Amino acid sequence: METTKNALITGASSGIGFELARCFVRDNYHVILVARHGSHLDEAAQTLQREFPQSRTTVIPCDLSLPQGPEQLYAEVQRLGLQVDVLVNDAGFGESGLFVDTDLQKELGMIQLNVASLVHLTKLYLKEMVARRSGKILQVGSVVSFMPNPKQAIYAATKAFILSFTEAIQNEVKDTGVTITLLCPPATDTNFFNVANMEDTKIAQGDLADPKVVAEEGYKGLMNGDARVLPTFGAKLNFASSNLFPDSMLAMLMKSQMKEVK
Predict the structure, then answer these.
(1) Which residues is 56 bridged to in the sheet?
(2) Which region, left, alpha or beta, applies to residue 190 given φ > 0 means left and ψ of -120 to 50 means alpha?
(3) Based on the number of CB atoms within 10 Å of its own CB, is 241 exposed (0-12), middle (13-18) or buried (19 or more)?
(4) Which domains does the chain have, with CATH numbers?
(5) pTM above 0.90, yes or no
(6) Distance between CA atoms of 141 and 233, rounded to whole angstroms?
C-alpha cells in the first residue's frame, strides 16, 4: 500500500517515541523521526526498515532543548516538502533531587524541551491543520501531570503544564476537524531514569510499564480522537488517587517513591 500520510515524532530514537514510530510505520505512514542524536536516529530507522521492509522514514537530528530548535525543524520539514498530518510531541527528559540542589541550566533546558518546544511545534503545525481542517496531535504528558512530585519538582510541573495547555486547546479546536490527544503514561521502562539520575530509586526498581503497551494504547487513542489516554491499570490508579487524596498526601507518597533502594 502506498504511503499517503506523514507523522512527525519527536523523541523518536528510543522508548515510547520509538514504539509510537513502530505503530505508524506498521500502518503505512511515512514517519519523520526527530531526536537530538543523529546516530541514534539512524539506528532506529534501520531497525524499522528491518522489521517493516516497506517502511519509509526521514531522519532529522535536531536539539529541541535549544530555543531555535523548533524553527530549525519546521524549516527543514518545509524544505523537504512534507506535510505533517500527525504531530507527536514525545521529546522530554527529567531530573531528580531537591530543587535547592539541582542544576539550574539542566532544568531550564528541560523547560525549553518539555514545554517551550512542545508549545512552539504545536503552534506551527496546529495552524496548518486547522487551515486544512484535518490533522492529529499527540501530546505526551505523564501521570505526574495530576500531582506534585517532590524531588522531580520541575519535571512534574512541565507535565502539569502539558495537561492544562492540551485541555484548553482541545476545547478551542472543537469542530475544526483536528483532534488533540493527551497520553499520560505511568513510570515506564525507558532510558528516562538514567537521564534523570534515578536508576537506584524505589520507583525505577518497581513495576515499570512496557513502552510498547503505552505506545499501542496511545496510538489507538490518537486514531480514535480520544481526549485523554491512561494506558495501563497503573496509570488509571494514579489518576484515581489524584482525585481521592489531598495534594499534601500525594506529595508525601510520591516523595517516598524517590527514595534510593540500597
Answers:
(1) 30
(2) beta
(3) middle
(4) 6-256 (3.40.50.720)
(5) yes
(6) 16
Q: Phi/psi class of residue 97: alpha, beta or left (left: φ > 0; alpha: ψ in -120 to 50)? A: left
Residues marked as catalytic: 155
Provide the pLDDT for residue 3.
Answer: 45
Rounded to the nearest 5°, which phi and psi values hold at 107?
-70, -35
* Cell numbers at 203, concatenated: 520507583
Tens of pLDDT, residues 130-157: 999 999 999 999 999 999 999 999 999 9
Nearest-5° angle of CA 111, CA 63, CA 54?
Answer: 120
Which of 38, 29, 40, 34 has the alpha carbon at shortest distance from 10? Answer: 34
d(CA 150, CA 148): 6
What are the cell numbers at 195?
Answer: 537521564
Q: How many angstroms separate the first and last alpha carbons of the chain? A: 53
Contacts of 245 (CB under 8 A, 6+ apart): 253
CA separation for the pair 150, 256 (Å, rounded): 9
Q: Residue 176, Cα to own-chain centre: how many angstroms?
A: 23
Q: Is 230 helix (H, G, I), strand (E, B) or coil?
A: coil
CB 173 within 8 A of CB 216: no
Angle CA(130)–CA(123)–CA(143) in degrees, nearest 5?
105
Q: How far is CA 101 from CA 50, 104, 107, 154, 156, in A?
A: 45, 9, 11, 12, 17
Q: Are 44 and 14 in contact (CB under 8 A)?
A: yes
Task: Tell me which residues of the chain have a pLDDT lower than 70.
Answer: 1-3, 193, 196, 204, 262
